[in-house]
Amino acid sequence: MEMYQELTAGPAIFQMGVPAQETLPATLLARMRAQAVRAEVSAPAIYPDPRGELALRREIAAYLALARGIECAPSQIIVTAGFSGGLGLALRVLGLEQKKAWMEDPGFPFTRQGLALARLSVAPIPVDADGIDVDYGMKHAPDAALVVVTPGQQAPLGSTLSLVRRSRLLDWAAQSKAWVIEDDYLSELQLKGRATPALASLDRAGRVIHIGSFSKTVTPALRLGFVVAPAALASQFAEAAACLAPAPGPAVQRAMADFMREGHYLRHLRRTKRVYAAQGDALLKYLRARTANIALAGLAAVLQLTDGAPDLAIAREAARMGLAPTPLSLWYASNGPVRPGLLLGVATSPLKRIEASCDRLLQIIDRLT
């Protein structure tokens, strides 16, 4: 819990995992939520569908077909309380306690902790420019029953899982009867070029469980995410949702459904990408004039530090000055090699504050290394 509170404190400059406040059409969304709440309290007092509101599941299915290449029915979609809710639901349905799971190294620390809490044995698999090293996993953990992967934009290094590795991963999963959880945390929110289709769009054997979220694209305050279950598991996911993890309240779901149906969501994404692209370019330009060890990775800039640099101490000192870089070392498994660095959130780096914030951070780095 301490790490969660430390990484999610804010908002602050360079904070990871949250969208820019200024791009959110807050007034419009607030009006839609108010209308949905009024409709909710005046409706008959019945239990809602634990899978989520049909209107939202239909909109999500239409969006996934258009933007992520996934063809699925609304009955395969379960609305959840963000990514963590989707991960917890998937792990309950799969029931893989005491089994082995591949996990990207570096990878999202809360996913790694979630797997451990679900009593899975985590096998750290290295990541390179082509994404997770599937051959390494097949060699060192061939008996794994689960893979958790961020194929679109690897978190935190930003690489896209290559088509060759996607095919090898899916072939291996089909042959081994292993499951693959796809964390599509940024969806189509890619700053350079067109976003690659989701891994689930290539799955012909029904081994991929796709998890998406509105936390990065709209706001984490909504606590809205979704799971796309393979058709063969749809009823099991629905039963688990009904008994253990029903969807969030109907009002927020109906508001999001209206937001998507009226075209506001796609317009918001287009505007957000333009803003983030400008901020990312400005951040890289300023830092590259001062250090060579900087690269864009998804919605973050990765600032590599010298071996042995205390990135956690640097991040904590920066927090005292109103900055919130994330220590890269926290993303590595504790039993493997660690590369120190800082992750600088692009979304929370407004243009007018980039130069002063970077100067302040570089001063801290110089002082502590």
Assign an overall shape.
globular
**Tally of structural domains:** 2
Mean pLDDT: 95
Tell me the number of strands.
12
Which superfamily, in CATH terms, is the homologous superfamily of the largest domain? Type I PLP-dependent aspartate aminotransferase-like (Major domain)
The major sheet is characterized as: 8 strands, mixed
The helix/strand class is alpha/beta
- CATH fold assignment of the largest domain: Aspartate Aminotransferase, domain 2
Strand order of the largest sheet: 1-8-7-6-5-2-3-4
Rounded Rg = 20 Å
CATH class of the largest domain: Alpha Beta
User: Terminal Cα separation, in Å?
Assistant: 28 Å
Helix-strand pattern: HHHEHEHEEHEHEEEHHHEEHEEH
Low-confidence stretches: none
What is the percent of helical residues? 40-55%
- Give the count of helical stretches: 12
Strand content: 5-15%
CATH architecture of the largest domain: 3-Layer(aba) Sandwich
InterPro entries: Aminotransferase_I/II_large (IPR004839), HTH_trans_reg/aminotransferase (IPR051446), PyrdxlP-dep_Trfase (IPR015424), PyrdxlP-dep_Trfase_major (IPR015421)
Pfam family, one: Aminotran_1_2
Domain Aminotransferase class I/classII large: 21-290
Keywords: Aminotransferase, Transferase
Give a summary of the structure in a few sentences:
Residues 21-290 form the Aminotransferase class I/classII large domain. The chain is an alpha/beta fold and 369 residues long. It is 42% helix and 15% strand.
Give a verbal description of the structure:
- This is GntR family transcriptional regulator / MocR family aminotransferase.
- The protein has two domains: 118 residues, Alpha-Beta Complex (Aspartate Aminotransferase, domain 1); 227 residues, Aspartate Aminotransferase, domain 2 (3-Layer(aba) Sandwich).
- The protein contains twelve helices and twelve strands.
- Strand 3 and strand 4 form a beta hairpin.
- The radius of gyration is 20 Å and the shape is globular.
